[in-house]
């Protein structure tokens, strides 16, 4: 949302984000665990594909708005699955009100959740009150014995949250994915510019690629468990053949690229490692992700003085990552999602600063390395379980400060 409040009963964007970041876990242990796909489900083709007739939303209780018992012809439905423990869900849910407001009378938005651990009926009711103002158009429903969850999330073989499903004017599934990406799809569907056949082909292709990468992840894990670096490298290379946004089985989606670089370094195949890192640094889903770039910087570290070409590449990737960090932190968030992401990335960006500091120090740029490491320490958690710990980073900074100044 671009506006500062949601109306008379609304909480501010900052309030929404604080709910998303700091939600307490108050669920009852007798409730189901969050949804996970079984190995059998992951191995099977999706039973719901873009272009199929959309299944109905089956609710045990409608907390807000009239029930949706059928899809009315001519109306587009946006069905958002969420949970009260899911920070990204809470940050993106308020965007539904904007979507409905822009297409008054043509779009119905539904926020559907299931009862599970840390998402009890009282959690759900409290969260709905905090997120949606009294005049909100979003309808909120509690799933009925997981009927809707299974019909949508399990059926497309994606248990992640948040997830949004768009049903077109003819009752067909037009698209599904992350809610932040939904608005332009809704616009295209309403304008009848959405190519459903092309979307179906893309969905089927993506499903094949997710299944392929998931099988390779299992091969990678097995290879690592038996200490076979060569087999692990082969599996990681296979995952790298899949577009970053279509991988499955391990998180983050770009994990295979820095893993592959690191394995090549450990196998003393440094020229290959550099080539792979350069390729990765230009890929969508990595070139715009500071943490992904910083992991490439770390993976290239040979544990000794690097060759000049490796040192230059580490420095280039570190600068690329820090440019993204600085631009992101200087940007004014336009809505609750952007504010949530900026807040969530603040400490995460500390790890980017640490790897960039290492690259600068290896290049002899000690003052710049000290400045970046100091920035990282200022935002680093005191939790001793973090690796590296804050104590370790302070010791690293002291070591840099002890070095003689360059003449």
What is the compact description of this entry?
With 407 residues, the protein is α/β, with parallel strands linked by helices. The protein contains 16 helices and 6 strands. Strands 1-4-3-2-5-6 form a 6-stranded mixed beta sheet.
3D architecture notes:
By secondary structure, the chain is α/β, with parallel strands linked by helices. It is built from 16 helices and six strands. The protein has helices spanning 13-22, 39-43, 87-92, 95-102, 121-131, 147-154, 182-190, 196-225, 229-240, 256-266, 270-281, 290-299, 308-330, 336-362, 366-379, 390-401; strands at 59-64, 76-81, 107-113, 139-143, 163-167, 173-177. Strands 1-4-3-2-5-6 form a six-stranded mixed beta sheet.
Say what the CATH topology of the largest domain is: Glutaredoxin
- Strand arrangement, major sheet: 1-4-3-2-5-6
Q: Structural class of the helices, strands and pairings? A: alpha/beta
Query: How many helices does DSSP assign?
Result: 16
Q: Average the pLDDT over all residues and give the rounded result.
A: 89
Let me know the largest β-sheet: 6 strands, mixed
Helix content: 40-55%
Instruction: Give the strand tally.
Output: 6
CATH architecture field of the largest domain: 3-Layer(aba) Sandwich
Q: Give the topology string: H per helix, E per strand.
A: HHEEHHEHEHEEHHHHHHHHHH
State which percent range the strand residues make up.
5-15%
